[in-house]
Amino acid sequence: MQKPRDWREGMKHSSTAQTMRHLRVEVMELCEGAGLYQIDLLNGSKERVSEAEYWARRRGQLKLDRENASLTATGQHPRQKKFETVKVACRGEAPPFAAQTARSLKSLTGAFVASQTRTLRKQISSVLYRTTSFKEFSDRLMQQYGITVKESRGQLSYLPAGRTKFIRAKHLGDKFDKAAVLATLQANAERKPKAQFKQDTIGKLIDIQSRMTEGKGIGYKRWLTKHNLKVMAQTVKLLQEKGLTDEDALNQRITELETKYHDALAVVKDLEGRMKANKELRYHVAAYTSTKNVAQQLKIAKRPAVFEEQHRAELTTYRAAAAYFKANNITKLPNPKKLEAEYAQLASEKAKFYEQYKEAKEKLLKLKTAKQNVASFFREEEPAQQER
Predict the structure, then answer these.
(1) What pLDDT score does 195 carry?
(2) Who's near 56: CB < 8 A, 6+ residues apart?
């Protein structure tokens, strides 16, 4: 607080920039302590959604919801349910001149910029995670979306189509600046390419007759015939290696794998739930322990209201933890080290059962595909024999 009017009783209050920043910090700390979702009021998040952008989205969505409600009440179907302003602005539509007050112009401009920024983030991200070099990154942005990228003094800026002024990376978020972009491109280049085909992978038969009715040529039919022959060779080889050439034996093995698959999945889900509860409990134990001293000082404070105002964030965290313990009938705080050891044990068990789940799922899919291929093959053979 800079001036007496900011705090002295009886004087007219005037909110300064420092006062508003202090209030924003307090709001963010309260929400964080209570475990509530909170936008970044100080523009310090990785994806910087400014306060103006947040309110532009919210007001636009509320207005659209009211319009849709009135349309629904008259029996009409709304054409648009999600607020988008880029389409309106690009078509050049605007309210009548009489309604274009300074306030409406400011709101429309803010909404348009907010929506354009959100679209720009999505477009850059869609290209960033699919490229391995900066040249490829900039070329694909230009080809796909008409976005120009430039570097100036070690900083990146982006120019979307239809704009004349570049947007700096710091206004979009940390992951769009030069260091983060280069790190992502390097990680993409070092990432090992996934094997496209495994030796024991089983493909699926393709219905040639249905594909030919789509107007495919004779060359495509030849390719399908070769493909189906290779798939059947893989199928027969797999069934022979597993000793499942008999239909009853194949069905029995599929049933066994389905049981193993569902049992392992149920155990994994149970362990994940216990890990989540353990993590939540550890958080509240740490919060309660760190703020308990402040709560005790409140009881003996000479001016409780002033003390609570000064320590609102700590007291809010303390009360949230106490409410959690009461709701879960916890009368004695557990040992944090024991909770950590329990979490590590649960994570180890989850990893073991997850491997069993993945293995059973992979084997089950292969055998089901093989069974389907055999059934499809004999269905195609019967009409062919009848024609002969």
Answers:
(1) 42
(2) 85, 107, 110, 111, 113, 114, 115
Task: Assign 255 a pLDDT band (cuts: 50, 70, 90).
Answer: very high
Tens digits of per-residue pLDDT, 284-299? Answer: 999 999 999 988 998 8
pTM, full prediction: 0.44
**SS3 sequence of the chain:** CCCHHHCCCCCCCCCCHHHHHHHHHHHHHHHHHCCCCCCCCCCCCCCCCCHHHHHHHHHHHHHHHHHHHHHHHCCCCCCCCCCCCHHHHHHCCCCCHHHCCHHHHHHHHHHHHHHHHHHHHHHHHHHHCCCCCHHHHHHHHHHHHCCEEEEECCEEEEECCCCCCCEEHHHCCHHHCHHHHHHHHHHHHHCCCCCCCCCCCCCCCCCHHHHHCCCCCHHHHHHHHHHHHHHHHHHHHHHHHHCCCCHHHHHHHHHHHHHHHHHHHHHHHHHHHHHHHHHHHHHHHHHHHHHHHHHHHHHHCCCHHHHHHHCHHHHHHHHHHHHHHHHCCCCCCCCHHHHHHHHHHHHHHHHHHHHHHHHHHHHHHHHHHHHHHHHHHHHHHHHHHHHC
Strand partners, 157: 150, 168
Name the maximum alpha-carbon separation found in the chain: 105
Whether the CA torsion 296, 300, 301, 303 is positive or negative: it is positive
